[in-house]
Amino acid sequence: MARLMGQMMQMPLMISSLLTHAARHAGDTEIVSKRVEGDLHRYTYRDAELRARKLAQALARLGCEPGDRVATLAWNGYRHFEAYFGVSGSGLVLHTINPRLFPEQIAWIANDAADRVLCFDLTFLPLVEKLAPQLPSVQHYVVLTGRSHFPAQTSLPNLLCYEDLVDAEDGTYRWPEFDENTASSICYTSGTTGHPKGAVYSHRSTLLHTYGLVMPDAMGIGGADVILPVVPMFHVNAWGTPYAAPMVGAKLVFPGPHLDGKSLYELLEAEKVSFSAGVPTVWLGLINFAQAGKLKFSTLRRTVIGGSACPPAMMRTLESEFAVQVIHAWGMTEMSPLGTLSLLKAKHAALDATAQHRILEKQGKVIFGVDMAITDDEGAALPWDGQSSGNLVVRGPWVIQSYFGRTESPLVALEGRQWFPTGDVAAIDADAYMQITDRSKDVIKSGGEWISSIELENIAMAHPAVLEAAAIACSHPKWDERPLLVVVRKPGAELSREQMLGFFEGKIAKWQIPDDVAFVAEIPHTATGKIQKLKLREMFKGHRLPTA
Amino acid sequence: MARLMGQMMQMPLMISSLLTHAARHAGDTEIVSKRVEGDLHRYTYRDAELRARKLAQALARLGCEPGDRVATLAWNGYRHFEAYFGVSGSGLVLHTINPRLFPEQIAWIANDAADRVLCFDLTFLPLVEKLAPQLPSVQHYVVLTGRSHFPAQTSLPNLLCYEDLVDAEDGTYRWPEFDENTASSICYTSGTTGHPKGAVYSHRSTLLHTYGLVMPDAMGIGGADVILPVVPMFHVNAWGTPYAAPMVGAKLVFPGPHLDGKSLYELLEAEKVSFSAGVPTVWLGLINFAQAGKLKFSTLRRTVIGGSACPPAMMRTLESEFAVQVIHAWGMTEMSPLGTLSLLKAKHAALDATAQHRILEKQGKVIFGVDMAITDDEGAALPWDGQSSGNLVVRGPWVIQSYFGRTESPLVALEGRQWFPTGDVAAIDADAYMQITDRSKDVIKSGGEWISSIELENIAMAHPAVLEAAAIACSHPKWDERPLLVVVRKPGAELSREQMLGFFEGKIAKWQIPDDVAFVAEIPHTATGKIQKLKLREMFKGHRLPTA
What's the rounded Cα separation, in Å, for the pair B364 and B361? Predict the structure, then answer.
């Protein structure tokens, strides 16, 4: 007998439908933006939807055709938001570029993506002027501002004014419907080695990710929320918040480039923000500002912290001093980005606060749609016992299959299925809470056992004389690899090799304690502030451990 | 230039993945069932997933092939839950039949669906024995019980025992992946006229609906919830709760046939239920029981009430006396079923309780995925002003395109798109909150203006001498139609035509007051308890209004 087909409406999942939904059902809900120009801009979803359609018209008038890439170099703001929908919604592909990368990286990325249009905030005019000669594919430069702020002089050929483009259109545009697997946007990973690689999201993957993201066990966003995405819109689509807010009709507040403690605090209070999301460092500035002025948050109730592991102390401070729930999250560019979030299960209600905190400090459980596993170096699955650490692999409809313009598959096989190797090393406990213990390439493999470089660094950093520390693998004739700790002392502080090593005693198992310490004046970093472990390992390639 | 395709993993949305997700990530979370046999059964998602795979094996062994329909006549319980996944997950089609229908309707439905297997609870053995001779397509009868409760005698040929079937399999079954548009389940509407019609859900529509359902602005279900679906699993898949609970890993509590106030109260308390869903009448029993014993709910915090309009008084009682949040919802079989739920927006936070209640008493806003519109009888769109009432039409990926085995399209065109006409008459306000005012065929069209029969009935029912009231259209030479009120007096109560009509004064506009009252001994009802307005209109076809 032939398989019976469902008899439901065939409607492709389209990014444009998020904004039309918001315009229809939360038409007067506000989008508030702190502008590059310095002032506060307010309008509604209804306004945004009309302007996004006008943008789609303008891009077509510029000659853009389905599949063309439209790049942005922009902060979180309403014009960037319009581009999210005007570009993707019309079948073009939004390419959000991280302006904090080195200029040569930006040029490489824009060329790899073959961007046809580049839209940028006024802030980035000097950068774009400098880059332009290296960007042969870019036919149109658009500055995201109005006529009154339009640069009087520029080296850019035929620079276009965003507001002029939008104003010239009549808005009689109708969002097209097309294959939901069509590319919607591209975001490049800034890998520590090799060239950056582009993740190509689709309308389908974006909508499924957005459904996953608003779930109570994920960001838990509803129409009664006011959302301020601190995470930039050039960091994996601000973790999906610009899609999630219109899905539920929540008010959106964009901070622009103003991410210091004071600016954020004032905006959170003035606009009655209830939910935010960002990396730990931004929260540090906000907490410091609030503590210094003995201030409280009147409306902020919940925040998702990810990007890098959230220090437990920060989670405790936000909860106990400020009554803000912290949801620890993990994801990556290749995952749209959300993978896991840490929230309690019903059975945890009876635990005491300390036991609950131990769970909440992990990276958490997957959202439905993502599956994960950990494997040993032979690719065999490891048990979920909270102890076994292994290579974390993931799969799901919002996980990449391959990178932009590359045919080789990054996937690995496990139990008859294809998985994306995250490059993270993690343990998963019996309740399916995942905890990152290291990056695969940073883990130290000592006689078949894995030592977490992150754990060693966290301990070392807790020493009052340590400014920064990095643990790397050093070759060893017997154990294959043993840990070497590279340390920058605080200015004026004294610290000996023996004192440093002694500090580890009682904190971890004896065999995990580093074999040696090397004191340096500076540890090398990437453009995004991460320690360049590869460079460090090269620097200490010839280092001979005293135990060797 | 060719459209660029996304480079994300191509994974079909499969119902089986809901249960494997729960087994992997909430493996020890419980499913508790009050059994037909009388006792309480407990096991975990891990157990359920294994048994669902064994069921899939058993059905294949019985000769079932992809697309075959497997019917159930069963209460809410773990075996029914296993069928939801074992049947749909293996590419068969689950057909949940409402045992409360008249036997001849059940037979008609089972024949229309050409069910190959019929699984039923012990309760329904006499019913199935009576029906069997009329069910030529059914090859296998399976009673959902173990050997110890297996009927000693039955007229059913080759009756199979569910537990024997499951026990005979080894569980080495692997869930297949196939086209996500494949049919997963069928549910028939019990229309008031004509034969019932089957809505055919797909794996895709079911998963998208489930994502929509768990959203904070819908049921708002997370892994910390304990869910008791009071709504039967034969009523549009218990509104999707058997899919939603495994999606988030929430504990499930099934009440079996025990839906009286006492049984429900005890189960809610014993199993620490936090969330429930059901029709207003069930809550009435529960509230009466709790009030009589001066009892409170220790863990119940939220409930979704739908199926028919929830009386505002019930919403207030649950909130003020019992601290249970009531979410008013609306949907239909053709919508999987969820369409709208009433929750406040951020801007409503400042309103006083009365104003908030007025919003929450409406049927609410659509979940993202459903769109709605109201039209006049010429099919033109009506404004969203909270006043204009019109035919409610909907569209979305979990709304039907056509009915099982029928080629004719029930859809209507509006603004270049196809919509499903709900048969309801509604008004939508400027904030996109929808309120049902009537059924299309029951609305009374008086001189171009529409009068809501429901509104007239609600007023009449508030009179202390009225047991039941129905308002129907009666033909009128000048106004085309005018309302006639059909009333059943309470036993021993006195009520004149003039007293009844006088009761309307000051409560609605003068022109909406009925022209006449007819007192009857009884008002005819359908099998599911709805007033048979068609029959009433036939009864009063020749009625001459005093105003005519």
Answer: 8
Q: Tell me the C-alpha distance between B530 and B548, whole Å.
A: 30
Amino acid making up residue A541:
K
Q: What is the pLDDT of residue B1?
A: 46
pLDDT in tens, B388-438: 999 999 999 999 999 999 989 999 999 999 999 999 999 999 999 999 998
Per the CB < 8 A criterion, the answer to whether B252 and B81 are in contact is yes
- Chain A residue numbers touching B432 (CB-CB < 8 A): 24-27
C-beta separation of A24 from A46 below 8 A? no
Q: Average the pLDDT over A184-203 and give the result.
A: 87
Contact with chain A for residue B383, Cβ under 8 A = no
How many of the other CB atoms lie within 10 Å of CB of B356?
14
- Residue among B49, B211, B368 with most chain A CBs within 10 A, to mutate: B368
For tokens 């540090």, name the residue: A284
Q: Please state, in angstroms and rounded to a whole number, the distance separating the CA atoms of residues A73 and A71.
A: 7
B residues 93-112 lying closer than 8 A (beta carbon) to A: 93
**Coil, helix or strand for A282?**
helix
Q: Which two tokens stand for residue B247?
A: 């999606």
Domains with residue ranges and CATH for chain B: 16-261 (3.40.50.12780), 444-539 (3.30.300.30)
Report pLDDT digits (tens) over B493-537: 999 999 999 999 999 889 999 999 999 999 998 776 778 888 999
Count other Cβ atoms within 10 Å, centred on residue A116. Answer: 23
Chain A residues touching B182 at Cβ < 8 A: 3-6
A534 pLDDT band (50/70/90 cuts)? Answer: confident
3-state secondary structure A39-91: CEEEEEHHHHHHHHHHHHHHHHHCCCCCCCEEEEECCCCHHHHHHHHHHHCCC
Residues of chain B with pLDDT under 70: 1-2, 191-193, 528
> Which residue in chain A is spatially nearest to B428 when comparing CA positions?
A25
Where in A238-334 does DSSP place strands (E)?
A: 251-254, 275-278, 302-305, 325-331
Restricting to A residues 17-46, those with a Cβ less than 8 Å away from any Cβ of B are 18, 21, 24-29
First to last CA, chain B: 70
Q: Which of A59, A258, A35 is nearest to A146 (CA)?
A: A35
Q: Which residue has the tokens 């990286």?
A: A105
Please tell me if residue B376 touches chain A, with a CB cutoff of 8 Å.
no
Residue of B450, B457, B479, B533 with catalytic role: B450
Q: Which amino acids of A are annotated catalytic?
A: 189, 334, 445, 450
Phi-psi category of residue A67: left, alpha or beta, with phi > 0 → left and psi -120 to 50 → alpha: left
Among the listed residues A76, A165, A164, the one whose alpha carbon sits nearest the alpha carbon of residue A123: A76
Cβ pair A8:B400 closer than 8 A = yes
| Least Cα separation, residue B201 to chain A (angstroms) | 5
pTM: predicted TM-score of the whole model, two decimal places: 0.92
Active-site position among B180, B334, B361, B457:
B334
B271-302 residues labelled b (16+ CB within 10 A) or e (exposed): bebbbbbbbbebbebbbebbeeeeeebeebeb
CA distance A336 to A370: 11
Label residue A192 by pLDDT band (50, 70, 90). low
Interatomic CA distance for residues B531 and B155, integer angstroms: 36
Q: What is the CB-side half-sphere exposure of residue A139 using CA atoms within 13 A?
A: 11
Whether the CB-CB separation of A223 and A248 falls below 8 Å is answered with yes
**Alpha carbon distance A205, B6 (integer Å):** 8
- Distance between CA atoms of B326 and B201, rounded to whole angstroms? 28
- Per DSSP, chain B holds a count of helices (H) and strands (E) of 15, 26
- Rg, Å, chain A Cα set: 24
